[in-house]
Amino acid sequence: MIRLLSGLIALGLCFDAPAYVVTISPGVRAVYLRVGTGTSVTYNSNVTTFGNNGNANNNTINIVSVVVPANVVGNGANRAMTSNSSQGTSSLDSYAFCDVPAEIYIGGFYRLPGNSGTATLTATVPTSLTNSSGQTIPFSQISWTSSGNGDTGAQPILAGTFTPGSQTLASFPVNTWRESCHSFAYGNDAVVAAGTFTGQVTYTLSAP
Amino acid sequence: MKARLVNVTLLAALALSVSATAATYPVDDSASQVLDSSLRMKWDSVAPQSVRGAGVSGVTTVLVRLDTDAWNGRQGRIYMTLPEQPIGQVTASWTTHGTLLPGALRSGERALVYAGPLRQGLIEDTLRLVIQADGQKLVRTEQLRFSFELDLETP
């Protein structure tokens, strides 16, 4: 009976046992987007440099271009464009995913504690490309196909044609990596003045 | 032969009885102190979709002070415990300065940190504590309550 009583007392004390407390809070949210040349962030990267209040900023702006010979200007046959990007490896695993310079790598992720959420990839597209004389070519003359070495099935960032304004290109479900390689082409549907026509498209990955 | 068998059975029963009555006591660690008691966990890897992609980790230091005065002169085994957590499995591993044993435990389990005589009334050591959890399940602040318990050896 005495043993039983002491056992009960011990049991009762267990509920009042002191404890030291460590409060843990979730990992930080993060978005990462690379278009063409960028700071590669593989899963082996040092977490102190990115993903935990760090960043992977890269100011490089790649150029995609094509030269249209005078004798074919406006003949309606698409002209393949090429880029000045030399970085075709995947940021996910360093796999040679895109064929550079013909293709531009587009990839990234949205990281968030939890299992629900979506980030949106958009392109901010000007109305037209312009030359030094102010003449224009509609940006809708530029389209792209989407692929990736070793990939089968649909690409996460689909093929399309630029539409002036804010153009939604893809959704990135939380905690997944999305990547594709885009090959651009100029539609060459109209006779335009001679000159170098330029315009800049900005890609943005935004999360709520 | 029959008598011997009976004796062996009795001894076994006695041994079982002793084991069954070994008492476990909570150890007062209210003098312990956690440095950086609020941990912002860090992702184990930069990117998702890797083997380690969903894990988060944090490191802190704990000045452990265990009041064993009530059991001075006795022998015992002290365990650190962490209850089951609503965020799934949490793992803690630690190193020490030598008084306590280094080790690791998963939530819902206990791990031995000391075995031997209880002489001084107070056991002190500094733990470098590493905590790991599933980053996708850790969506809000959680409190991990570590405690200590003593299995007192019978005299």
Search tags:
heterodimer, A: 208 residues, mainly beta, 6-stranded antiparallel sheet, 3-stranded antiparallel sheet, disordered N terminus, B: 155 residues, Immunoglobulin-like, 4-stranded antiparallel sheet, 1 helix, 11 strands
Which SSEs are present, and which pair or pack?
The complex is a heterodimer of chains A (208) and B (155).
Chain A: H1 2-15, E1 20-25, E2 30-35, E3 64-65, E4 79-80, E5 82-83, E6 104-111, E7 118-125, E8 128-130, E9 136-138, E10 142-147, E11 160-161, E12 165-173, E13 177-186, E14 202-206
Antiparallel strand pairs in A: 2-6, 3-5, 4-13, 6-13, 7-12, 7-14, 8-9, 10-11, 10-13
Chain B: H1 2-20, E1 24-27, E2 33-35, E3 38-40, E4 42-43, E5 55-67, E6 74-82, E7 91-95, E8 103-106, E9 109-118, E10 122-134, E11 142-152
Antiparallel strand pairs in B: 1-11, 2-5, 4-5, 5-10, 6-9, 6-11, 7-8, 7-10
Any idea what the radius of gyration of chain B is?
A: 20 Å
Distance between the termini of chain A: 64 Å
- The total domain count of chain A is 1
Q: Percent range for helical residues of chain A? A: under 10%
Beta-strand segment tally of chain A: 14
Poorly predicted tracts of residues of chain B: 1-21
Following the backbone from N to C, one meets helices and strands of chain B in this order, namely: HEEEEEEEEEEE
